[in-house]
């Protein structure tokens, strides 16, 4: 199927001539409203039918309606819950969905008449449960619900959504299951009983509405089960029905991915066994169900997410094991009590029975009736009244049993076994890596960066996946560009012949896997896999130099092409890419280095690389051990060995090719137990006030700080803190010169006492200035030629003060406003105030880092404490070497100078012995003799 063409934007003439624009001018434009245009319900019906339904809810028609302010001027101002039609309701939902697609403010319109929103939302919920409505309309309603659940920051929305996912929804659980949950959370039982008493006091109408809201999600799950069961494994299936199923899974994911909505709903979802039913559904086995399956995997991961739903705390490895062991122990007790023929299972140790294979071995021989009884005792299924009501589907019962009790790999274990390089299956999967033509209409199997995250692991994991797929999108473009230029054709012998050439890709002359190291303890994949790739660089000298200049840790891609088109075939960029070029495999690798004439890796260093004769060059590369392990397991099952088929190697531009290092860093971070400050932890996860990380909100502010050369003079200092009383510790004007040490205290002044209605009293800063002489500055000598010369403004001074305090400081502004100078001064002040700490500076580019570094070098910072890592160090405008090698040489040179000085002192003092043999000996010599 050819790629979808990107819709051309509408011109001004097309917009003005459009029928919707004409209607808006007559009925809901500002001019029409001023002229007294009346609301016509039949017009809403007509527009809904002709512009939305008949066009299949076309994006272009929805965009025209939204552009004409159909919602703001016509639909919502004339909304009446008692007179509003179904078409009116869905038109409002469609406009909200379109606003989300266009990423414009969505809920501002509803804030004008907030008292009507509760009735509208209730009608939307009722419409979601309607039977017999077209699936296209039902999907539209689901998308509206998804947007509501993703807008919890809006008070108007949160008030309605919380009613659907609050504690009373546990009324839909089996009583035994509910009592189990109450045992772990006694306070919930108290609240639950209190809510029951309050319900008894409500009138019949209000009680019916309350019960409807509490049962809504349970009824939606049952409706979804019914729709899913109607899809057969073979035969035709409605695309709208499939889309409805996809949207419903997306809704469940969004509810599960946020703690406020997940806390009570997760038990309801688990009780419904929705995930198991989906996994066994025929839709998963159909080709139309690929996106559905990918979404289902995401939902399954969130249902078992490692978090305590009550407290919101992340579960440790021991917490997970305790939960798992308790489940198995409970199952063993029930088996021992009710099923004598399961005695062997009941008395076995947990490690021998908690695998899927073991559970099948023990429970597969039992009848469906016995399995149902067992699950009923475990409060997973209702106890049947008669034998006829037992569930007959044994596969379903076994899957429920296994899903609850089989030991699963943790998210971290799964992440550690995941390949970091994308393969051909991911690169061209438009469900997770959309094309440039994606307009936001469909559903994608991508994690969402919501307002809130479950845990820090959830935050890092989402960013890991999104960054990986964003890089994959760029990799896909690079592969398509390079391979298209190479023009692969099928030769007469059936091989691959290239009719063109590409700067970033070369045919492989030879490929060999040279090393497969043994796995490390506790791992199943090889610790290292290395291979040699030989290419013939018979190209222009500058391109040859680029290939020979590949550095250690640069990423390349190994590609297998099996074209089916004959020689001289002209490629069509409008046709699908893979079938034309015959792309079969894509595997990533990391450059270790180029081999010399003796077959040894040429090490990086200050020496120039040796000149190699001829055009053949061999690169030693590291393959991804996880991917290699998966491929070898596939080969053992009879699949082709991809590592014997590669015929193209592709490199990428260094600036765009750091994705593997970023992914490895994220993965290492998730494998490391690290401590994040509470204020930063809550800020990242989206809890609490957004400004809680500002230093003024923290309790550990530092009053006395060394400002060094921040201020050029006393007048500059006074101008930097306008309207603040400033006191100097000395009256000697000759000493009123920088550097300064300031003591800043916030005091409540008499004129700024707390006024009625104010949350906090207003404070005023009181500043004590202490000029100090150079000799008292501590371990770092003050070099007069190297000091700040920028007259910082009061706003910049406040930014510097914030950067010196604990907490988060963000400096923003247009180019030329002095952001770099402020950042450099903050770094310098931190260096002098916290001499026992290290500062890491990270920038988005080498140029930005060099710009910062050069300004830092010009300040009063000891040269031995500066280190420039990464590429681009050679572009620094200095003759000194600040790389790792340069710093080692600098320290060694300083050491030699010190030892020579010791030698001269030893000679002048006539001390016998080699006092400069080691630094320790020289230190003792200096201590006792000098």
Automatic annotation (TrEMBL):
Listed Pfam families: AAA_11, Aquarius_N_1st, Aquarius_N_2nd, Aquarius_N_3rd
Species for this entry: Mytilus edulis
Residue ranges occupied by any RNA helicase aquarius N-terminal domain in the UniProt entry: 20-409
GO-annotated molecular function: helicase activity; mRNA binding
Residue span, RNA helicase aquarius insertion domain: 700-782
Region (Disordered): 739-764
Compositionally biased intervals (Basic and acidic residues): 743-763
Domain RNA helicase aquarius beta-barrel: 487-652
Domain DNA2/NAM7 helicase helicase, residue spans: 795-894
Name assigned to this protein: AQR
GO CC terms, sorted: catalytic step 2 spliceosome
């Amino acid at each position: 199927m050819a790629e979808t063409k990107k819709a051309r934007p509408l011109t001004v003439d097309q917009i003005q001539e459009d029928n919707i624009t004409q209607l808006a001018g007559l009925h809901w434009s500002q001019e029409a409203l001023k002229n007294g245009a009346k609301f016509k319900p039949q017009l809403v019906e007509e527009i809904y039918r002709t512009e939305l339904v008949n066009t299949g809810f076309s994006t272009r028609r929805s965009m025209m309606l939204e552009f004409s302010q159909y919602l703001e001027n016509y639909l919502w101002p004339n909304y009446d819950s008692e007179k509003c039609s179904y078409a009116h309701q869905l038109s409002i939902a469609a406009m909200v969905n379109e606003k989300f697609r266009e990423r414009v403010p969505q809920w501002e319109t509803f804030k004008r008449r907030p008292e009507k929103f509760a009735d509208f939302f209730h009608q939307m919920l009722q419409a979601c449960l309607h039977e017999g409505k077209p699936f296209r309309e039902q999907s539209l309603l689901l998308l509206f619900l998804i947007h509501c659940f993703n807008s919890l920051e809006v008070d108007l929305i949160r008030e309605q959504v919380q009613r659907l996912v609050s504690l009373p929804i546990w009324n839909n659980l089996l009583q035994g299951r509910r009592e189990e949950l109450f045992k772990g959370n006694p306070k919930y039982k108290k609240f639950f009983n209190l809510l029951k008493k309050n319900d008894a006091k409500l009138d019949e109408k209000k009680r019916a509405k309350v019960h409807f809201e509490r049962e809504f999600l349970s009824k939606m799950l049952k409706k979804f089960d019914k729709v899913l069961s109607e899809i057969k494994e073979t035969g035709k299936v409605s695309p709208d029905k499939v889309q409805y199923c996809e949207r419903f899974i997306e809704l469940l994911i969004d509810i599960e991915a946020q703690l406020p909505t997940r806390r009570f709903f997760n038990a309801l979802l688990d009780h419904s066994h929705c995930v198991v039913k989906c996994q066994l559904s025929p839709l998963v086995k159909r080709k139309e169900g690929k996106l559905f399956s990918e979404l289902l995997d995401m939902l399954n991961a969130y249902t078992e997410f490692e978090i305590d739903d009550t407290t919101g705390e992340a579960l440790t490895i021991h917490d997970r094991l305790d939960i798992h062991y308790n489940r198995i122990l409970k199952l063993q007790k029930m088996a021992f009590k009710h099923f004598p023929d399961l005695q062997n299972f009941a008395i076995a140790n947990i490690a021998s029975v908690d695998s899927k294979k073991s559970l099948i071995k023990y429970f597969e021989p039992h009848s469906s009736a016995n399995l149902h009884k067992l699950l009923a005792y475990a409060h997973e299924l209702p106890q049947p009244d008669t034998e006829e009501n037992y569930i007959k589907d044994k596969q379903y019962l076994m899957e429920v049993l296994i899903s609850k009790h089989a030991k699963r790999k943790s998210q971290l274990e799964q992440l550690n076994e995941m390949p970091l390089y994308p393969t051909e299956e991911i690169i061209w999967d438009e469900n997770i890596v959309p094309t440039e033509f994606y307009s936001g209409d469909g559903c994608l199997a991508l994690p969402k960066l919501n307002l809130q995250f479950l845990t820090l692991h959830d935050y890092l994991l989402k960013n890991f996946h999104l960054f990986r797929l964003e890089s994959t999108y760029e990799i896909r473009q690079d592969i398509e560009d390079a391979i298209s230029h190479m023009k692969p054709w099928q030769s007469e012998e059936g091989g691959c012949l290239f009719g063109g050439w590409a700067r970033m890709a070369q045919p492989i002359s030879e490929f060999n896997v040279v090393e497969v190291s043994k796995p490390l303890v506790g791992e199943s994949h090889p610790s290292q896999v290395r291979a040699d790739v030989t290419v013939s660089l018979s190209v222009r000298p500058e391109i040859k130099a680029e290939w020979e200049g590949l550095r250690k840790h640069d990423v390349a891609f190994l590609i297998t092409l099996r074209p089916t088109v004959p020689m001289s075939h002209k490629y069509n960029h409008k046709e699908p890419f893979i079938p034309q070029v015959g792309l079969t495999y894509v595997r990533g690798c990391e450059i270790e280095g180029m081999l010399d004439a003796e077959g040894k890796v040429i090490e990086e260093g200050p020496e120039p690389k040796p000149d190699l004769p001829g055009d053949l060059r061999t690169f030693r590369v590291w393959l991804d051990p996880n991917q290699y392990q998966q491929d070898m397991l596939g080969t053992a099952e009879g699949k082709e060995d991809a590592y014997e088929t590669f015929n193209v190697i592709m490199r990428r531009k260094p600036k765009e090719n750091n994705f593997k290092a970023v992914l490895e860093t994220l993965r290492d971070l998730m494998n490391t137990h690290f401590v994040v400050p509470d204020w930063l932890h809550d800020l990242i996860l989206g809890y609490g006030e957004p400004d809680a990380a500002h230093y003024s909100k923290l309790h550990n502010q530092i009053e006395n700080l060394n400002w060094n050369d921040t201020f050029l003079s006393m007048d500059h200092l006074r101008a930097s803190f306008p309207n603040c009383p400033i006191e100097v510790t000395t009256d000697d004007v000759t000493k009123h010169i920088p550097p300064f040490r300031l003591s800043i205290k916030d005091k409540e002044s008499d004129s700024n006492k707390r006024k009625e209605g104010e949350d906090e009293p207003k404070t005023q800063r009181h500043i004590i200035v202490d000029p100090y002489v150079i000799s008292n500055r501590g371990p770092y000598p003050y070099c007069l030629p190297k000091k700040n010369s920028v007259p910082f403004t009061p706003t910049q001074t406040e930014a510097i003060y914030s950067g010196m305090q604990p907490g988060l400081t963000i400096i923003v502004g247009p180019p030329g406003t002095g952001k770099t100078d402020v950042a450099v001064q903050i770094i310098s002040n931190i260096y002098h105030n916290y001499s026992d700490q290290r500062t890491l500076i990270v920038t988005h580019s080498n140029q930005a880092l060099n710009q910062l570094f050069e300004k830092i070098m010009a300040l009063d910072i000891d040269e031995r404490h500066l280190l420039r890592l990464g590429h681009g160090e050679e572009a620094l405008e200095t003759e000194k070497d600040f790389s790792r090698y340069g710093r080692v040489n600098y320290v060694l040179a300083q050491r030699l100078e010190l030892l020579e000085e010791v030698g001269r002192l030893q000679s002048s003092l006539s001390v016998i012995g080699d006092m400069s043999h080691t630094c320790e000996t020289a230190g003792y010599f200096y201590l006792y003799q000098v």
